[in-house]
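Example: Hexosyltransferase.
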Amino acid sequence: MATSTDTEHRDHHHDDHRHYHHYGRPALPRPQQQQQHRYAYKTAVKKQRPSAGGKKKSTGGNRRRRLTHVLAGILLGLFVGYTFGGSYDRLRLYAGCGTDGRSGAGQPGVLQPLQSSQALRDDRDDGGGAIPAAGGGGAGGPPESLLFVGVMTANRYLATRAAAVHRTWARRVPGRVVFYSSEASVRPPGAADLPLVRLPTVDDSYPPQKKSFLMLQHMWDNYGDAYEWFMRADDDVYVRPDRLAALLRSVDSRKPVFIGQAGRGNQEEFGLLSLEYDENFCMGGPGVILSRETLARVVPHIKHCLKNLFTTHEDVELGRCVQKYAGVSCTWSYEMQTILYHNSSGRDAFTGKLKQKEVHRAITLHPVKQHSHMYRIHNYMKGLELQEIHQKKILLYRDVRSMMNQLNSTHPQSSKEFRLTGDTKQLFSSRPGSPNYLGDPDLLGLPPGLNKYRPRKVADVIKWDFISKAWFSDTDANPRRRIDSYTKEGLDDVVREVMDLINKFSKQRGRVIDFKEIFYGYQRVNPLYGVDYMLDMLLMYKKYRGKKMTVPVRRHAYLQQQFTGFEVREVLDGLEVNPKMQQQDAEVYENDDDDAAGSPSRDIADNGMVRVVEGPPAKRRPDSQAKTVHFVLPLFNRLATFARFLDNYESVCLANDERVTLTVVPYGRATADGAAAAVAQLAARYPNARLTVLPDAGGPFARAAALQAGAVHAAGPPPDDLLFFVDVDMLWTAATVDRVRLNTVRGRTVYFPIVYSEYDPVVVYGRAAGSPNHFLVNQDTGYWRQYGFGIVSAYATDLAAAGGLDTSIQGWGNEDVDLYEKFVRSQTATAVSVFRAADPDLVHVYHPVECDAGLPEPKARMCANTRFETYGNVDQFANIIYRNRDVVYEFAARRLRNESASATRPSLPLPVSVSASRPRV
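Written out as structure tokens, the predicted fold is:
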């Protein structure tokens, strides 16, 4: 945003850019004709200016003359349209008139078709091979001629940065993108379509002054009459082509224009760049854009500019050359710092969070030094575009519903049966689940408002959560807590969109409003309609035109982020399931007569959300059971718990003919004998089951070594090497086994499920016999172990690529965190990502946690924290304290008396005994 000190430059910038873009403008005269052209233009302008002392001409004569010209123009237009109307319905674009000057193919005064000259240039050998278009028109259409981008790169960056640019934003440029490198550059393997130009006599040394100027020379010689704008870019800049095109189409390319982020050097270089007081240059990093007229004036003098260099800065010398021979300087506009954004963090730029207003406002982002982040930024920008498409989709739904309401005023029809006329097809004839289903207009077409949802009873009322410095909610176990990261991210998105809406016309009004903070607000979430907000915001009003002022203001905002409906896509191993099978499922659904269809809640169920979330699928696909899951279980004592584990394994896996194996790694002679006996009984009932108990591992218990030994023994050859590390305290259902198969993809994802862990049944149920229903999931029966990583499924090949388990870790703890961190660190190298999700069918049954007194301090602290979390939640402890308040008061009073007594006598070292007894109910 512009400040008050930049008012004059800002106004001048906008006055110069109030033009519209037109295709097919005539090409500029050649350099030897430019002087005469400028003289003729000045003469014509001078003739249009009335003399100061001349007499005022007759008003009636002027009117008659204008009327005559209008009538003559109309008659001429009718004559041309009548004579040539059938032949000129598809006009072709022409790039200019006169001879080409380079190919010798043109004749003076003859128009040259743009496509013909373009095709000739595509067939030339420029030393880098043929140059395919990196952007432009669609299939079979003419190429776009708005922008030509020359990307400066080097041979060592062709396979990384240049390839990343070519595969991301370069493909969407409304024109062409070509990469310029040194004479000795070689196109990297796997990038045969990279449009590369090897500049003769140019090397990759720094500074790249010769490369930059000769690149401009090549751009003009080969594409000067084909494009209206020319951009000089580096291989570490990300460009948003849609926004850049919108900017350039608002500026007249027939005028000399030099667009970029203006600079005069840093503090150390001030006065050393040989710049006059009114001269500047466009910084090369964020990108430099030249109009066709500017490039035409500069190119004839490139050799002279190269021979007269005053500094080692390539962008400074380009700006000096443009200033001298084109007569224009870089755009003096404070806005360019946000439009062409340069991040001063260096190599760490754009490696963190991208959800920032600077990223959202920018047209170019510089520098992207790590080429892998070029793809990350591109995916993020595509996500922003997808959000805009969803917004347009919602607006279309609202327009459709509004028109239906207008047309239904005379002949009422339900939305599902609406027809434009009596003999036309229903507008929403396809049912939910069909590929042609357009959505529910009654749900998605409602105008924005806070009263879309009308509860039928008090229990259906959706409560509002209060937002201030903290988050206040009576539906949470902790009514006052910090604002979650995902909630804060949603608030940031809402505030940014609101401020963009408020400042949409701020330039014309000469003011800007900045966001400061949220005083307070309210939020509620409706699964059908969206998220509602009521915010009280502190803003800063800044007026920089006319009487300047800065005033704090408050604004109340009532907002709604509408959901666009649920979309379900079935995938297997990262690939979408055969669309033909989905079509068959949709046809089966079409034949199903259901009178309940039409309600919003039914709409969600029809799209599969209720079926996916609340229960197993109606029919399990045979291909989802094709993977063999190898269970690996370390075991030390706990034989009674192991018997419960085998009962669950039998009922879920063996009784249902699941493709599974079990490998038990025991520690201790007694444990090994007991486990072998229990497994032998199970094997007698299921002779085809693959059950293995390894010999006693010997030595002290080490979970990492046990898992490693079990993985080596259990895993089959790829692709039959899916490992599932599990604990003896776990219970699961068939849905968990399906999730292990679906969420673990070779070479792509490893699955760390978030386990539901039970509270102490004495606290929850008032008995020590255990939970009557282990799969009852709510905030009173247990909690989600978000920081537990012991249960994991991964392919043996991916486990080895990440570095495997650290077998040097002894005892309990740390081995799971170490493995998780290895997978996180290896994401870039192995392309294997970590997938975490809460699994309500994977339950850790409560058992008292006993911490060994010999544990080192970090493990002892982890064990103690785990023990404290398993007792119960805050509400349950509050109720226990309230029911036993007399005991608590007596304990507090006795503690105070002891402290008072100890204060009156000498302090002596006393033994400290800490016990974690179970609370009394």
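The domain at 629-847 is CATH 3.90.550.10 (Spore Coat Polysaccharide Biosynthesis Protein SpsA; Chain A).
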